[in-house]
Amino acid sequence: MEYRWIPGYEGIYDVNKEGDIRRHCKTKKVFIKKKKKKNGEVCVILSKNTVRTFFLIQKIMYLAYPEIIGEPKGKSKYLTFKNGMNTDTRVENIIFDTRANIKKRNSNKKSVIKVKNGEVVKLYKSVLETLTENKIHRSRMIELLKSDGKMTDTQGHSYYYEDLYYDRRYNYGEKRTRVTE
């Protein structure tokens, strides 16, 4: 796999098209551990001459592969991910976009499934619809949003984000059918 030096850190750090960053020590090459911020962005800390600098992974990818990502056009001046997944750090997934488009792409309403005893009871279009129809207090929404996509109520129902429920149940990527009412 081809690695390129990170500009400003030549001879110390390099990166490949998958977003893997290596530090060159005297005798070996060590992969740098990526950290995930609270908002989901992936970052790394690079150091040079005892000065540590925090970088978002998309910025490093742009510095190393500007010909693939391209230059910002018009109002598209923010580096973001095409598929909206911050953990997918491949160079093909990084683009320049406007703040409005990024907000629109990241604010998609997630559908929620209500499950009881392993059977899907109902599909809701959004978390808010789920809470209002089931008379669940809005503060519980935080539990669903911050957890791993699962919430339970006092009647024994479990609520899952639809995509996460099927991913867990069918091991990612098998064909799935939507429940409609």
Brief characterization of the structure:
This protein has six helices and 13 strands.
Q: What would you note in describing this structure?
A:
This protein has 181 residues and is an alpha+beta fold. It folds into two domains: 3-104, Alpha-Beta Complex (Homing Intron 3 (I-Ppo) Encoded Endonuclease, Chain A); 112-169, no CATH class. It is 24% helix and 30% strand. The longest helix is centred in the middle third of the chain and has 8 residues, at 57-64.
CATH class of the largest domain: Alpha Beta
CATH topology of the largest domain: Homing Intron 3 (I-Ppo) Encoded Endonuclease, Chain A
Name given to the CATH architecture of the largest domain: Alpha-Beta Complex
Query: Strand order across the biggest sheet?
Result: 1-2-3-4
Quaternary assembly: single chain
What's the structural blueprint in terms of helices and strands?
Elements: E1 3-5, E2 13-16, E3 21-24, E4 29-31, E5 35-36, E6 42-48, E7 51-56, H1 57-64, H2 66-69, E8 78-81, E9 94-97, H3 99-106, E10 112-116, E11 119-124, H4 127-133, H5 139-146, E12 150-152, E13 158-161, H6 162-169
Question: Which structural traits does this protein have?
Answer:
6 helices, 4-stranded antiparallel β-sheet, 13 strands, elongated, Homing Intron 3 (I-Ppo) Encoded Endonuclease, Chain A, 24% helix, 181 residues, disordered C terminus, 2 domains, alpha+beta
